[in-house]
TrEMBL record, chains A, B:
Self-association and partners: Homodimer. Forms a heterodimer with renin and inhibits its activity.
Pathways involved: Amino-sugar metabolism; N-acetylneuraminate degradation
Entry's EC annotation: 5.1.3.8
GO MF annotation: an example: N-acylglucosamine 2-epimerase activity
Catalytic activity: an N-acyl-D-glucosamine = an N-acyl-D-mannosamine
Keywords for the protein's UniProt record, in alphabetical order: Isomerase
Protein family (similarity comment): Belongs to the N-acylglucosamine 2-epimerase family.
Protein's name according to its UniProt entry: N-acylglucosamine 2-epimerase
Amino acid sequence: MASLSEWRDRIAAELDATIAFWERHSHDPQHGGFFSCLSRDGTVYDETKYVWMQGRQVWVYSRLYRTVPRFRRPELLEAARAGGEFLLRCARLSPDSPRVAFALTRDGRPVRVQRTVFSETFCAMGLDELGRATGEQRYRAAAREWVLAVWGWARGDARELGRPELSGAPPQQALAVPMVVLALALQLLEGAGGDEEMEAMADWGGQRLLLHLQRGDAVVLEHVSPEGRELPGSLGRLMNPGHAMEAGWLLLRLAERRGDAGLGARAVAALVEGPLRGGWDPQHGGLFAFLDADGHCPTQLEWSMKLWWAQAEAMVALLAAYAHRPRARLLRHFQRVATYAFDKFRDPEHGEWFGYLSREGNVALTIKGGPFKGCFHVARALLLCEEMLEGLLQRDEPPPHPPSPQ
Amino acid sequence: MASLSEWRDRIAAELDATIAFWERHSHDPQHGGFFSCLSRDGTVYDETKYVWMQGRQVWVYSRLYRTVPRFRRPELLEAARAGGEFLLRCARLSPDSPRVAFALTRDGRPVRVQRTVFSETFCAMGLDELGRATGEQRYRAAAREWVLAVWGWARGDARELGRPELSGAPPQQALAVPMVVLALALQLLEGAGGDEEMEAMADWGGQRLLLHLQRGDAVVLEHVSPEGRELPGSLGRLMNPGHAMEAGWLLLRLAERRGDAGLGARAVAALVEGPLRGGWDPQHGGLFAFLDADGHCPTQLEWSMKLWWAQAEAMVALLAAYAHRPRARLLRHFQRVATYAFDKFRDPEHGEWFGYLSREGNVALTIKGGPFKGCFHVARALLLCEEMLEGLLQRDEPPPHPPSPQ
């Protein structure tokens, strides 16, 4: 097993290669913003600009510029700014509503709208971070407006998003909604004190997120009733281990912010260790994309495929859990997941990771980016892991239970 | 290679096993209609009733009852009638519109609506056939109302279906739309003379379908502009070989109805032989789910998976092409596809076919039915193939080019 410092170096080098890939291939010098539909070698195979991907890449570039000295390069900030300006200019469907498109043409005309809160979420994330990196308040003000809209929709009526109300459709909460509410609140709270509205939003997200822990915390369900009860059928039994682990490290951040040891322990047990135990393919390695809480076969065709983002979020969650309370098994889990991800997903020839492997671990789609894969999960996971490894290496004392080979 | 009569016997036996599976496991004696979410052994894992699947199973049962003597059993017709009555009672979203739900609760309350024409399409198909099987005109009248609504939406404004109009979204036609228009017209025309409205609808569907043949008939694109031009990006390059072949046998029926030899030859070359050539996996066998006309990697995660319905439609298309004009290579292709399908998809232990295999041909989802797989493609393909094989065997003369081993 590689040491912490070896992992730190490997991860830092991989982050450099990843950002180099996106800087080389994804920028649109004509209209600003980013192409995300990139072939293995970076060729643009579709010019559609996906709003999630715009906001996420603005976040990654701005965050790297602001927090990692070797990325403090003016061209990175300028690309982020061009992306942010593209979103401000083009993303909204009308000037009098915060609703934004899901996909835009290269020059910024709306192609598709989702009836969810996620496009606005990633606009907000990107612009808040861009405001921090540039020091320009107007970006953060725009972000806050979107954040409050998302929180309003999350608490309110789905009809505002254009979803029909149907008598047979039970009211439901998707795990992603409290997750993004919590993530946005934590983003806006970073380095801030006295922002009571965002503190309340973070608590709301954390509390609603806990409703997805069911059966005595033994399972994490993607959809529950607004009161936190199980829903019938496949929808109600659906689990997404990587998603649960992403929720885990977000909740752990809230627990640390609140100094709530009980919440922290619950996040690690139910949202990090549990989903890894239940979601890891014992035969071929890697986290499954979906599982059914009662052991039925999921109906998602990709249920047994290995998706890049799930492995990336698992790396973050396991290292965050270890940083929270160092126990040797957490570090061993991190090393196992990271080794699998580096072995199977990275492309040493062209940079960035493949996104979609078969159950057996073969590359199923050769694309490096698409409608749902851009410059985000790999870069964010590597950045967060590098930060956490750096922090662990700088701790004065060795961990109470030094890792040992199994 | 098995002879035609061996295939006829094998296919007839498989049809019996398939219908036995659905009769044993899918009926809801309480509310009528059919469960389609069935595990490998037939266990219901979700009670949601999908409207496509209701209409399709009503069609299969009614058609078998009406046209195949060994299926002329009262209980089969009663199950079809209970399904048809369930649709008439529950499928519509409101009494004053032909729009129906996509999914219903077990007791018939709407769960989900699609902004497409397909739920209404399958209500119409099922009820027209139920009307034929029972001799009750009211079912056929209800079907015709839905048929005319589908044709109206196909020619008219997508906004009637609730789709937003977005300035960056180019107007487009999906292959499925002219296909279902043609299929519905042919269904209503069966055994009918003098129905000029349906003859016009069939011609409209056939003409619009031909717009998807592009690049000198070398490719069949899933989406084109309403004027029949290629659309940009992945959407514009998307191909679905099984879908093209399904369109092929429908168009061949129109060509035979019109006595249009040129149209028939074009259907066989461009919609049957072309998609098989381009869509067959040379390494593992089976038709791919999706391909990109320029050779890029499709963005659909399941692009390289082998789906049951594509192989079933290919069997029908190849046999229909051979029946249209007997050439040895068409029969060899049929035998190759049917051998692959029987080897890989059928489940001799519990009946019916698996739906979803990995690229390599392993069962990826063990379910026998789900939101998009019910009692339809397997049963219809087996029924149509049995009919065509019977017809071929009864021809007085041997085919001009008798099949020979390669």
